[in-house]
# Entry
Amino acid sequence: MKLVLSETKLIKEPITIINDLVNEARFKIKKDSIEMIAMDPANVAMVVFRLLGSAFVEYSVKEDVSIGINLTDFKQVLRRVKANDNLMLELIDNKLKITLQGASVRTFFLPLIELDEKEQKVPELKFKATVRCPSGILNDAIEDVEIVAESVSFQAEDKKFIIAASGDSKKASVEIKPDEFISIKTEEKTKSKYSIEYLKKMIQASKISSNVEILFSKDYPLKLEYKEIDKIQMIFILAPRMEGD
Amino acid sequence: MKLVLSETKLIKEPITIINDLVNEARFKIKKDSIEMIAMDPANVAMVVFRLLGSAFVEYSVKEDVSIGINLTDFKQVLRRVKANDNLMLELIDNKLKITLQGASVRTFFLPLIELDEKEQKVPELKFKATVRCPSGILNDAIEDVEIVAESVSFQAEDKKFIIAASGDSKKASVEIKPDEFISIKTEEKTKSKYSIEYLKKMIQASKISSNVEILFSKDYPLKLEYKEIDKIQMIFILAPRMEGD
Amino acid sequence: MKLVLSETKLIKEPITIINDLVNEARFKIKKDSIEMIAMDPANVAMVVFRLLGSAFVEYSVKEDVSIGINLTDFKQVLRRVKANDNLMLELIDNKLKITLQGASVRTFFLPLIELDEKEQKVPELKFKATVRCPSGILNDAIEDVEIVAESVSFQAEDKKFIIAASGDSKKASVEIKPDEFISIKTEEKTKSKYSIEYLKKMIQASKISSNVEILFSKDYPLKLEYKEIDKIQMIFILAPRMEGD
# Structure
């Protein structure tokens, strides 16, 4: 295989974000895309990452291959990418070879690792509420309510999406209304609670997409989807917090 | 009551500065101004804060009220203020309601707290020496002499104001002379020592006023006053350090 | 003596860099230059610093003098230098007087200290390989390979200079080729290993010179030289790491 990426942030940002949730991951390098599905060690959050072959300058994969990588190591190499570098990925001698080509040529070899963990599958989920909005709006709202508590409630109703938190007799809430950039659809008034700690890691994906789709149901997992057509997709699934958590 | 502030730094910066000295404080919300007087837990420093009604876009207070607030909580809310937000303060259900209005509307509720501490009064003080200067000059001088010691001497004499420190056979001094921006008045050669740790917290008030008035006498408290006409006033009073401290 | 320096970074940056290697040092103030030679406490690295009289606005030394200075203290004073300040050095009452002259005049006195340590001499060394390159290229390469190990190998051969590291089945390497800005000369294929921790401190000298000369031989000390003609010179000598280190 030989993969050459010019828009290097499409791999640099996701690996940094995924590494906040898991330390090692299995990447499936297929003929048309790279795919990774991982569950965090506490079994609370799942992250799905797809980077399409069409995002690459050169994408040549002869047969599907599955490789385990230590993400902390991978992230450290990716931090060394400079603005105008091209990034090349190859498999050589059972190692991942990463070449950064700019003013100079730098090569890194990372060992492939065995992953005991069984292969993850994305669960089939159906949601009552769907909100689409600029990803910055979700980021701001999470950071606003973070002040008062460790969990946040997402509440969708007719023409209103409310992100709120309360604790120690403090309360915070952000009200988001539909406009040309924001759509809010819900079958019924829907409310559910999620961990702010996890959400803060996931919303970093605003770096790869200026929009986010937020899907949830009452006391049911949350799904956040960030994507750029023909390039990249990151999906996060987060277990709900029950009342009293 | 309903108070709407557009120039939000007039409350954001002072609360951050006051919180460096005390953790909780009582605010008197009067018909023409908000006032707070607090003593630090070590009884070494007093801070007085007045924010005039005329600084607000809307200032409506029906009757004077006195409320206790946890400043760390308040500061965290104020950190969420964005550049173009308006900030609204109300009292609702025995809570302080803070509304930030910008692209979105965010509301925060903070509990009012009971303060055992008796009401503070600003002591009447008379000073021999008075220096007025750009607040940045005082900041620089404190940071210059901080290198060599934990306490600093302020010394005023005819046409000269000297900020100096010494310790461990190291010495540092800054000499400030009167000019069109700096005035130095003293009845006699006057020298007194103060804690640099406290001063460093107080000089943060340079963020609300580009000038400071420095008043002191020999082995007597120091008074620093920062103000903007018709808007805001912050006064700090700091106990002296005796020789040998 | 009275020394006045306008290009203050010529003393500010070197003192910060030297202080990363040693805590106290002896400066010889001679009629034409200031010179300092110091060995780090672990006897692994030597640093030589020369600041020429011609770099100063005023350089007046009546007789050679040797003074011991605590570099942490000196560095803290130098941090207070502002962009347009002049810096004046004098010896008064067995102290080093440092005057910073800008909008205000600030004076600092630091004690001279006794140094037990015997006077250091720069060893005579002969090298097989010599590389000259922009100092930023060496910095980047060291930071690239730092990811995978604690020591780095420098390898010069015909028309190629390779900086590489390996450890824990990870590898990194940077290949540098001669061009109009880079010259690589070696008598034979030459390779040697050095500590990255020390190198990272030394390459900070890129702040005083945009070029560096790199000299080494197999299992032999490394010499890095940074200089600006008629102004300043910093030389670092670093003991090799043996294979297996």
In short: The first strand of chain C starts at residue 2 and ends at 5.
